[in-house]
Amino acid sequence: MTTTDTAWIDAALTSARPQAVGALLRYFRDLDTAEEAFQNACLRALKTWPQNGPPRDAAAWLIMVGRNVAIDEVRRNRRQRPLPEDDQAISDLDDAEEEIAERLDGSHYRDDILRLLFICCHPELPATQQIALALRIVSGLTVKQIARAFLVSEAAMEQRITRAKARVAEANVPFETPGAVERSERLAAVAAMIYLIFNEGYSASGDTVEIRKPLCEEAIRQARLLLRLFQSEPEIMGLTSLLLLQHARTDARFAADGSLILLDDQDRSKWNQKLIAEGSALIDKAVRHRQSGPYQIQAAIAALHSRAEKPEDTDWKQIDLLYGALELVQPSPVVTLNRAVAVSKVRGPEAALEMIEPLAPRLANYFHFFGVRGAFLMQLGRNEEARVAFDRAIALANTSAEAAHIRMHLDRLMRDSEIAKISKK
Amino acid sequence: MLYAILCYHDEDLVGSWTKEQDAAVMQKLAVVQDKLTSQGRLGPVARLLPTTAATTLRKDDPPLVLDGPYAETKEQLLGFYLVDCNNLDEALEVARDLGAANPGGAYEIRPVGLFVPGSRPA
Question: Which CATH entry fits the domain spanning B2-111: 3.40.630.30, 3.30.70.1060, 2.60.120.10, 3.40.50.300?
Answer without folding.
Answer: 3.30.70.1060
